[in-house]
Amino acid sequence: MRGDLSAIRRVLLEKDRFLIACHENPEGDAIGSELALALALRKMGKTATVLNADPVPGNLLFLPGAGTVVFAEDGSKYDVAVVVDCGSPDRTGALVGKELRKCPLLVNIDHHRTNGDRGDLSLVDPEAAATGLLIHRILSAMGCEIGLDVATNIYVAVLTDTGSFHYGSSSPEAFEVAGEMVRRGVDPWAVAEQVYETQSAGRLRLLGRVLDSLEVYADGRVACITTMREDLREFAAGKDALEGFINYPRSIVGVEVAVSLREEEGGVFRVSFRSKGRVDVSAVAARFGGGGHRNAAGCTVPGTLADVKKRVLGELAAVMS
Ligand SMILES: [Mn+2]
What we know:
This protein is of the alpha/beta class and 321 residues long. It has 2 domains: 2-196, inorganic pyrophosphatase (n-terminal core); 203-320, Roll (Diaminopimelate Epimerase, Chain A, domain 1). 39% of the residues lie in helices and 18% in strands. It has helices at 5-14, 28-43, 94-102, 131-141, 148-161, 172-183, 188-196, 201-211, 229-234, 247-250, 281-287, 305-320; strands at 2-3, 17-21, 47-50, 80-84, 106-110, 121-124, 215-217, 222-227, 257-264, 268-275, 291-292, 296-302. Strand 4, helix 3 (94-102) and strand 5 form a beta-alpha-beta unit. Manganese (II) ion (MN) binds at residues 29, 85, 111, 130-131, 161.
C-alpha cells in the first residue's frame, strides 16, 4: 500500500471545508465512496461538497446523500479537495478538475494500479477491492461512528466493485466490511433490488440488440460485443444503459476475455475489457493509453469499427499468447 493514512486522518480531523470529487461516468464505488466520506464529515459538523461532472446513475439515486451531489461550482472556498476512485484530477472532468486544483491541499484515495499518485497526500492500494474499503479504513482510523447512511454507501461501493463478490478481488476485508455494514443495518436484498433490479423494458430490448452483435474469436477464448451510436438512439438510451452488458459475453464457457466496443462521437470507440482472471487486461488497455485493473480495464481508440476491432484483438492476442 502506498500513502499515508495517518496524515490523511489528521487533515480530515483538523480541516473544515471539503470538496469531494470522483471520475467521470461514476459508478457504485465512486459515488458510494464520495457520499460515505461526505456524510461522515458532515456528521462531524464540517462542510463537504460533492462535485461531479456527470449525474448520479438512476440505480444509485437511492443512496443516502445522493440528492446533495452538485454539478456546478458556486464560488465556495475549500480547505481540502479529496478525489476518490480516480487516477488523476484530469479524469474528474474539466470543470471539476479546475475546482480541485484551486484547493490548497489535494488528497487522493484510490485503488487503481495506474494511479499516478497525484495529490499532496494519497492513500492508494491496488490490492483493495474497492475505494469504499479505503474510506472505511480512514473513517475507522478517525474513530467515526458509522451510521446506516454511511454504511449503505460503503456497502454499495464494495458490492458493485467486487461484481457482487464474484471477482477475485473479493478479499477477506471486502467480506468483513460488507458484514460489518450489514450488522449496522444494511439490508442486502433491499440494496440489491435497488442496484440491480430496476431496469426498464427498453434497456432489456437494447441488451437484445447489443447481444446480436456477439462475435467469438481466438478459439472461443475472446468474445466481443459492439454498440453503435445508432443503437443508443433507436432505444433512446444513454451510454450508462450499457453498464453490465459486458458480463454476458464473459459468461460464455471457455471465454477468458470479453471486449465491448462502443462508438462515441468523433470517430472513436470506447473499448472495455473484462477478464476471468488469467489474462491481465489492464496491460492491453495500457497499450492504447488506457488503464484499469487486471480483471477490468478500458481505453479509447480512434478509427473505424473494423480498424479498431482489428488493432484491439491483435494486441489482446499478443498478451494472451
Ligand atoms: Mn473502484
